[in-house]
Amino acid sequence: MTNLDELLIFSGLSLLALFFARKSLMLRQLAPVLYACILLILIKMSALAYGGAIETSSFTIELLGFEMSWRFDALSWFFAVITLIAALASAVFMSGDWARYYCEQQGEKGLQRYGLLHLVLMLNVFTMLILLASGDLLSLFIGWELVSWASFWMMALSPEAKARQAAVKYLVYAMAGAMALLAAIAMIYAAGGTLQYGQLVAVLTELSKTQQIVLVLLFSTAFSIKFGLVPFHLWQAKAYAYTPGPGAAFLAAISSRVGLYAFVVVFVQLIGFAQLHSLDILHSVWLNIQNILLWIAALTVIIPTYIALQQHDAKRLLAWHGIGQGGYMLLGLMMFDSIGTAGGLMHVFNYASYQAALFLTIVAVVYRTGTSDFNKLGGLVTQMPLTFLVMLIGIIGLAGLPPMNGFVSKWMVYRSLLLNGQPLLFVAAVFGTLGTILSVYKLIHNTFLGQLRLEHQQVKEVPWSMLIPMLALSLITFITGFMPGLILPWIASIQQSIGLPVIAYDLGGIVYDKGGLDMIYVCMVMFYGFGVGAVIFYFLGGRSKRVHQYDNYAGGHFLSSKVRYHYSNNFYPGLMNLIGPWYRGSVVWLEKAVVSLVSLASNLFEHMYRSRQPVMMLAVVMVFALFAVLVKSGASI
Amino acid sequence: MSVTELLAELLFMPMIAFIVGLLMVLMMRKISARLQRRIGPPFFQPLYDIVKLYGKDTQISHGLWHDIGIVMAVGGYIGAEILLPVPGFDGIADKGGIITLSYFLMIPSLGMALGVGQCANPNGSIGISRALTAMLAYDIPFIIVVFGVAWHYQSTSLVGMIEYQQANQWGIFEMPLLAAAGLFTLQGMMGKQPFEIYIAPAEIATGPMVEMSGKYMGGLFVMQTFQFYTAGVLYASLFLGGGDNWFTFLPKIFLVVAIPMSIAFLFPRYRTEDMIRILWKWPVMVGLIGLAFVMP
Asked: Could you give the CA distance from residue A589 to residue A595 in angstroms, rounded to a whole number?
């Protein structure tokens, strides 16, 4: 039995175990242990991440003449590790006091629903591993479908009507994506009679240019929908915002990144840079597939980020940022050079580490206060200082500022855009980052800073069972920012295995003779600065006196908890006066147009099908018959 | 780089920055005084001010993060000074480069924002909302300038850029449009009129400083000295060939900051949205045209 067999069988068995244990509270101890074991098996396979040979599974399935096989390479391993870390953190978080809270929240069916949540989380992990292990296009498709359904189930767990609605919306999108993927696979099969990865390139070169473009468009539609690229991003934020607690943290951290995984496998590994770059539309050199994808990525950075800026709910804000951060990954990847692709791939890991932590902090806040609405929060820093710290580290990562890991991967993306002479994309990327800074400050200010509400004055810090996973994720965010060289070998071996130029790195960051990055120095300098700053502040000058926040006045009046002045609406009035008219929701409009078009067509076909209009039916048949006769006779003449 | 060199850099670079920054504050006050036909303050006035602020009896803290915010604001700049290449000290500057430095400089702003946030004064959060919007406004042209400069020198290392300029020609002669856009941006970065609504020193009750007393205000004062110095050194490194020695370097950086300071006192103040509008229009346009010349 190979390592991969062990991994898949063990995660399958774990799923079974959770299924049988789903009605007992033993689940709480069992689930984290199971994730830890799966993680251990992955660590056993860690040779993959340091240039080891591909691990194959001994299973193969013969289906209609295809042989489906499963294997793990450096890329799969990288995504699998992120999946497991996110799942482990979520599971530990769910297993402590949060379990009791959730059961109480859900009423009499509480325990059952809680068991289901654990089960679905494991199902997500299992299907994810199957997808990552896929060895040909058919198994990729099967894994793709499994992941889609598993995440649908997770989203549909919440009993709220709105959540169900969002989940169904996601499902419609996912099905459209699956159909596109299936069509692309069918096209390849029709052209070459094979679905093996290895032969795909040969098939592609045989196709005509139009066919190639159609194929690439089908693939990219399928992947973009899962990945949440503009204009297919509308399902994501709502669906994630309504997913119950830690489940949302898992989904937001990694689930939609399978879109990027597929982009890497199909676009980078199989089709390759030269093909993408030479596939041009309308014979214009500029309008090639690579550039189009780059610009879609740039729009994905900007648009969702500035929509996030307008949200009044913490979960929604983060979910919108999740979409925006995906743009950076694709932006880096599509540059096809060593630094850019490394940045894009590394951002998957970095993003998962802080996004999971940030979602968990919101769940913690909801656990204590019952809401994630900015208008009902504020001032919690004095009550929940450690949760605040986690959120602070998370937002520094999300905004991409040193010393957290988000900075390193974004730096690599910027550096690559700079090296390749892409000024407009560079400005777009920075514009996205600046918008992120504005919006994450709104996030932290409106939950933890500012006015503390009267009803929250008794709120306490969350218990350790919830703090430990959050703090562990923050630690990852910091350590991999301080020493990016811990993650970069994994990235380098991915680049090696899929045939990209390999990045030069050391423990502190990127080695590049015309301006590299050494995070160890940068961080040490920063902490030295903070140290000196602290000495200046605490040891020089008079002693400061700590006063309560209501020992204060503004505008000539004393402030008290009765006067509510904490606001999230129009938090950046200066900016909104200027860019406010741009929020037209054109993509929402597009979605509505497609929906009404489809419903019109379906109505039409329904009428036809059910023969409610026999005359019409007859007329259509007549027209077709006439047409057929005419064509036939025309051909014979 | 030996350990003594490293220690010297860690010790002396922030100290030089502080002293030069104090002199720049003095220069600003002198310029404003001369423009208003006053004599202006005596030589040691900026230092007296800091001593006075730190020595106040009443020092109100609104919580731990109010304090840490000030530590981050001052400490972040102290770190940034060490990453700037100046004559004699450029050992660590190579480890980061211009992109790192641009993001490093946002840490003090974030610290100040956190500190003000903890004060829970509604006017404070209005000030921060304005300050962050202003950052968005001036960073767009700034980043275009950074891109053009880095592309022209084919390097993101400030040390590399200075070496190139000293071997060839100053950046300001090779990229005059980008240099002009950079100078325009500097006005916003230093928070000088007409772009000073977020600091709003004249009506302190509606800005980030609203809850800052004693050494909190002193900390922000120190931060301002660093801010002037950083702006000067950064601009001199990008466009004026950096410095061989302090005798040629100091006039350059004083000249650089003197220009925005002189312009400042001739203007009233723009609203936040007008600030964005003007900064996203003129310097961006000039910067993009400059970029088109730099990138053939």
From this structure: 10
Q: A444 and A335 in contact (C-beta within 8 Å)? A: no
Q: Of A399, A537, A559, which is closest to B74 when you measure between CB atoms?
A: A537
Look up tokens 């242990």; give the residue: A33
Can you say whether residue B131 is alpha, beta or left, with left for phi > 0 and alpha for psi between -120 and 50 degrees?
alpha
* pLDDT of the residue at A285: 73
A186 vs A126, A136, A195, A399, CA distance in Å?
Answer: 26, 13, 9, 42
pLDDT at B38: 92
Type and span of the H or E element at A60: strand A55-63
Q: Rounded to whole angstroms, how far apart are CA atoms A149 and A140?
A: 14
The answer to whether the CB atoms of A423 and B133 lie below 8 A apart is no
Token pair, residue A155, equals 């989203």
- B47 in A contact zone (CB under 8 Å): no
Tell me the nearest-neighbour CA distance from A391 into chain B, angstroms: 12
The pLDDT of residue B9 is above 60: yes
Phi and psi torsions of B41, nearest 5°: -75, 160
Alpha-carbon gap, residue A267 to A92, rounded angstroms: 36
Test B132 with A572 for CB contact under 8 angstroms.
yes
* Minimal C-alpha gap between A588 and chain B (Å): 27
Assembly ipTM: 0.94
The pLDDT score that the predictor gives to residue A557 is 76
Interchain CB distance below 8 Å, B78 and A451: no
B194: phi then psi, degrees, rounded to nearest 5: -80, 10
Taking alpha carbons only, the member of A148, A157, A81, A144 closest to residue A118 is A157
How far apart are the C-alpha atoms of A393 and A350, rounded to whole Å? 12
- Across A227-261, b (16+ Cβ under 10 Å) vs e yields bbbbbbbbbbbbbbbbbbbbbbbbbbbbbbbbbbb
Report the alpha-carbon distance of residue A313 to residue A376 in Å, rounded.
10
Average pLDDT of chain B, as a whole number: 88
Q: How far apart are the first and last CA of chain A?
A: 68
The pTM of this model reads 0.92
Both tokens of B91, joined, read: 């050992």
Any idea of the CA torsion for B132, A520, B96, B218, to the nearest 10 degrees?
Answer: 40
CA distance A68 to A77: 20
For A568-606, the three-class secondary structure string (H helix, E strand, C coil) is CCCCCHHHHHHHHHHCCCHHHHHHHHHHHHHHHHHHHHH
- Residue linked to tokens 């109480």: A104
Residues 175-234 of B with CB under 8 A from A: 205, 210-211, 214-216, 218-219, 222
Residue type, A152: F
Question: How many CB atoms sit inside 10 A of residue B180's CB?
Answer: 19
Residues 6+ apart with CB under 8 A from B24: B225, B228, B229, B232, B254, B257
pLDDT of A140 over the 60 cut = yes
